[in-house]
Design goal:
eight-stranded mixed sheet; 15% strand; ABHD4
Amino acid sequence: MTAADYRPPRWLRSPHVQSVLGSSPLRRRHGERSLAACGAVTTEHLIDAGDGVRLQGLHSLPAQATAPSRGMVLLLHGWEGSVDSSYMRMTATHLLQAGFEVFRLNFRDHGGTHHLNEGLFHSNRIDEVVHAACEVAGRFPNRPLAVAGYSLGGNFALRLALRAPAAGLSLAHVAAVCPVLDPARTMDAMEQGLPLYLWYFERKWRGSLARKRELFPQLHAFDDQVLNLRMRPLTRWMVERHTDFGTLDNYFDGYSIADARLLALQTPASILMAEDDPVIPIEGFRALQLPASARLEVSPWGGHCGFLESHRLDGFAERWIAARMLDAIG
């Protein structure tokens, strides 16, 4: 099963149809029903992510498991997504049906977890995700561990794999769907592309920041003028006041995995990308340098993390992740 096997019907080949339907309420309901139908046993966990940071996640076991699981797959969602995003639930469903356990991790300030930590989420908070992954591995030992992510979650998954050896974390495989490679180019693409995507992420982020201000008014005493900033100036405001990066360029460079930065990967890796992704430019993937143990698959279609296959809104990417994990762990 490779990207060459993904051939959506003609009416689904628009990248905008793929991207919009992929995050639509219809698909969220489909994901919820799919996961419920597989009868998984799911428990909530608060994870120590180091330095007093707490992250929340959901651990799921296959229904009526009569044998040890094949392994554990840690799933990471995209920016302003959550453990309950449709692609997270549907990926979990396919993995559970294949005999894996699944741990879906919420990033800081995602999935209604704003109250757990005072500081704001930003995309360079990789240390806490590495620490959380080690904590998950410790809570569920003696089984292979792999990681998969979508969009910004794909970026985090690949950075987690880069840092895994130094953290003493053994990963069997890492899979990423439409990962953010070069954040600066992604920002440019959103500003120059269909305004819908910029509006969507701005609206979601403003809501998240407003919730943070409501919970911690003394620490986050910004006014509505800040919340009304557009994406680039709002990101610059966040970087200058809530990080040590100083400038937007330094911040973007901090979580870039473009060009040769993934050459140091020691974990076998699989990357699925759509050539028509309207959010993440395909050009960066053409210049991407990877080790021999990593494979990049590019489909002509799919939009941004869509990869929908039919009117049922089933997703190729979710099946692809399960197939890659079966190939890696068996």
